[in-house]
Amino acid sequence: MTDPIPLNPWPLYDLHSHTRASDGLLTPEALVQRAVAHRVDVLAITDHDTVDGISPARDAIARLQLPLRLIAGVEISSQWENNEIHIVGLGVNCQHPGLIAFLREQSDRRLARAQLMAQRLEKAHIPDALEGALALAEGGAVTRGHFARFLIAQGKADNMAQVFKNYLAKGKTGYVPPQWGTIKQAIAVIHHAGGRAVLAHPGRYGLSTKWLKRLIAHFSEEGGDAMEVAQCQQAPNERTQLARYAQDYQLAVSQGSDFHQPCAWIELGKNLWLPGGVEAVWLRFPEIVSV
Fold this sequence. Notes:
The chain has 291 residues and is of the alpha/beta class.
């Protein structure tokens, strides 16, 4: 039995999306226009470890007079118990010196990891992976997604799921363990930049129920503010289960498509609604929308 879909008493919020500044395929201008086309009222751009997409998105909204409110965001990579965990920052000050310095360090870590990934692929007789990934990143933050697109273009796989399974997942040829900082550090830099910290897509880390609860408890204990409970695609009842965990750990809740590119199953604003009995992050922390 699937969760009932309640009526939404508020504007449509999509608080997790990506542009070409990281591993999205759309420019910031194209992303905000697409958001309006899909009736999104409030959009957060949350590129991986960069805020470079925010300013051009704001410029496009003003120039085109789009009926869209933009939340400045970022998705910070961190580590916990040998798992890569993503923390979304909402309502951050993109000019905050501490955030700028931290994201510069993240960029250096990304490049070092990319170099090691390319070396591993080279040994597997797949040359020029770094150059290919950097070209696809177009000056933005290089990610495993760029390596995946390069490998698909080289005929090594047919789609993203296949290329990750065969080359880029843990234990595979091109995988390199990340060297990110801690969840505590990610939360701290978001708070120092005036934002709120949100645990991103907790159902995607492949954790057992026991370990997922440990992750949420740790996130809450370190000062986290909210967690994502609603996405475009989820297992049956996952949304209501995550909402219960949020209540258990006194966290606000968020929703986001995690949009990267136009496709049939993940789209801006698609199937985003919150179960009853929870407090939306934009209601508990209304300042994130006014930044």
